[in-house]
């Protein structure tokens, strides 16, 4: 769980919205800034050329505090032993 401005954000909710956009993999993680925790997102795209417009569409679906403040595009995400995306991804 990520605590954003006093609100609870569950990573699986954010990942579910983004997985509908046709990306291969997505992982929502906690990131720290001066003001507190924010939602950061790591995305593996199916097509490297597409940037996707999902970030603009998400505020219409979710509350503002659930919208990722940082989106990082990667070629692949590190996996745990059960082949799930690792949650300990570094945002720097």
Distance between the termini: 20 Å
Continuous helix count: 2
Sheet-strand content, in percent, reads 25-35%
Largest beta-sheet details: 3 strands, mixed
The count of strands amounts to 5
Write the topology of this structure.
Blueprint lengths: L1 E3 L2 E3 L1 H9 L5 E9 L2 E9 L9 H8 L8 E4 L19
Parallel strand pairs: 4-5
Antiparallel strand pairs: 1-2, 3-4
Structural overview:
This protein has helices at residues 11-19, 54-61, and strands at residues 2-4, 7-9, 25-33, 36-44, 70-73. It is α+β, with helices and mostly antiparallel strands and 92 residues long. The chain has one domain: ANL, C-terminal domain (GMP Synthetase, Chain A, domain 3), CATH 3.30.300.30. It is globular.
Quick synopsis:
This protein has 92 residues and is of the alpha+beta class. Helix content is 18%, strand content 30%.
Characteristic terms for this protein:
single chain, 92 residues, alpha+beta, GMP Synthetase, Chain A, domain 3, two-stranded antiparallel ribbon, 5 strands
């Amino acid at each position: 769980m990520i605590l954003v401005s006093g609100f609870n954000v569950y990573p699986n909710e954010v990942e579910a919205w983004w997985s509908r956009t046709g990306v291969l993999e997505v992982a929502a993680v906690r990131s720290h800034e001066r003001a507190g925790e924010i939602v950061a997102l790591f995305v593996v795209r199916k097509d490297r050329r597409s940037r996707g417009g999902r970030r603009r569409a998400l505020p219409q679906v979710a509350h503002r505090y659930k919208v990722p403040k940082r989106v990082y595009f990667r070629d692949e995400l590190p996996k745990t032993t059960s082949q799930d995306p690792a949650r300990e991804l570094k945002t720097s």
